[in-house]
Amino acid sequence: MTAGTSVTAAGPAPEGSGAAGAAGADPSGSPSDSPSGETGPVSAGPVAGGTGRAHRRRRGGRTRVVAVATTAAVAVAAGVAAAVGFGGDDPGTATAGTLPPANAQITRQTLIDSESVSGELGYGETRTAAVRAGGTITWMAGTGARVTRGKPLYSVDNAKVVLLYGTVPAYRTLRSGDSGADVKQLERNLSALGYDGFTVDDEYTSATADAVEEWQDDLGLDETGRVELGQVVYAAGEVRVDSHEATVGDAVQPGSGVLTYTGTARVVTASLDVDDQRLAKKGGKVTVTLPDGKDVAGTIAAVETVIETGSGAEAEPETKIEVSITAADPKALTGFDSASVDVAFTADQRADVLTVPVAALLALAEGGYGVQLVEGGTTRIVAVETGLFASGRVEISGAGVAEGATVGMPK
Asked: Low complexity: which segments have biased composition (predicted)?
């Protein structure tokens, strides 16, 4: 099978996939299943695949391979007919006899392996800002407010707790003589806020303490030269206050949540089954359909494997692929703070290729796959190379196959 073919564990084809069952099933018995001849793009999810086995039988002193189907996947896509032998020295020899019960056309088109899922438009992951020392909440930034570096998120006992940028969480009081990544992170923020006289490194020196005192004076805090645990909250960048978990006047204990916050960029999050992981590639392009029907181009910004716990005593945890998507034009999302959207993922596509219904494929006893060409009152089997499977059709190539040719659809 050529690169790009999506194959999952062997098993029956899902309803509505367009793929037929194993040998003996009717993949095209109703007129509605017949190809329309249209050459527009086609999209669908993956098609099941698997293996088969064969035994040898002696006839007239000559060995002939006769395949025995063991699963629906002897046909790769659960729609391929039982294996057949060419039965002669020339695989392309035309033979007269019973014609196939139904026919289809070889068409040239764009084949797309894609899938649409529901997503949620919002501001991404929500985090909680919690107090590190007890006291009384005397002020909080309003819901929906945007807070930038150096600005307060809330106050405890009239002491401002400010936002700084960084990935190392505050976990200790910083003072002269300390060293580490958290010291360097603090000094970077002081420098970005316009304070100087110190070297940005991982050493908390007396010069750093002088800059901290100046910063504390500007905030109306006690000028100690130390950064107390709980005086700052670190986030990756500018934040948006999402909700309040306390109210002004509340007495809070260490660890109590005060407010929740998110990033300020609108993002779409979607959850995929593990089987669809091929769709979730960082940097991949998607199409987001908004509630008003408008399509917006998006890019997969992050992919994360998460464990979702079910509800109920007997519910089992489920592994999911969580995808975060950013819009190519963020202004296109204006007016939607939170909304349910549709996300169309594209795993692969082939432009201008020859395709047939998956059910037209024959698994050849000699190995590989073929199709039965119907030419007037005769038929012949020709070997083909398969490519992308999508929407119940498969990309094929090989000698003797051409656009508009007729192939048999075996029962």
From this structure: 8-41
Query: How many H helices and E strands in the chain?
Result: 2, 28
pLDDT value for 91: 55
Instruction: Compute, in degrees rounded to 10, the torsion defined by CA atoms 15, 115, 395, 372.
Output: 10
Question: How far, in Å, CA of 315 to CA of 334, rounded?
Answer: 38
The rounded average pLDDT for each run of 10 residues, N- to C-terminus, in the chain (411 residues) is 33 35 37 41 40 37 31 41 52 67 94 90 92 95 96 97 97 97 98 97 98 97 96 96 96 96 93 88 92 93 86 79 92 86 90 96 93 93 94 92 94 73
How far apart CA 100 and CA 410 sit, in angstroms, is 6
Angle at 336 between CA 333 and CA 342, to 5 degrees: 75
Q: Do 154 and 141 meet the contact criterion of CB atoms below 8 Å apart?
A: yes
The residue behind tokens 């039982």 is 82
Q: Which of 296, 302, 303 lies closest to 330 in space, CA to CA? A: 296
| Single-letter code of the amino acid located at 306 | V
Contact 341, 269 (CB under 8 A): no
Q: How far apart are CA 404 and CA 47, in angstroms?
A: 25
User: Rounded to whole angstroms, how far apart are CA atoms 252 and 128?
Assistant: 14
| H helix intervals, 73-170 | none
Place of tokens 């464990």: 307
SS3 77: coil
Beta bridge partners of 375: 378
CA nearest neighbour of 25 among 80, 91, 92, 94: 80
Query: What is the C-alpha separation between 177 and 209, in angstroms, rounded?
Result: 10
**Cα 165 to Cα 188: distance, rounded to the nearest angstrom:** 9
Check the CA dihedral 362-364-370-376 and report its sign.
negative
Q: Give the model's pLDDT for residue 74.
A: 35
Measured between alpha carbons, how far is 356 from 358 in angstroms, rounded to an integer? 6
Of 40, 4, 59, 79, which Cα lies nearest the Cα of 359? 79
Whole-angstrom Cα distance, residue 295 to residue 290?
Answer: 6
Q: Which stretches of 266-360 are assigned E, i.e. beta strand? A: 267-273, 285-289, 295-308, 318-327, 339-357
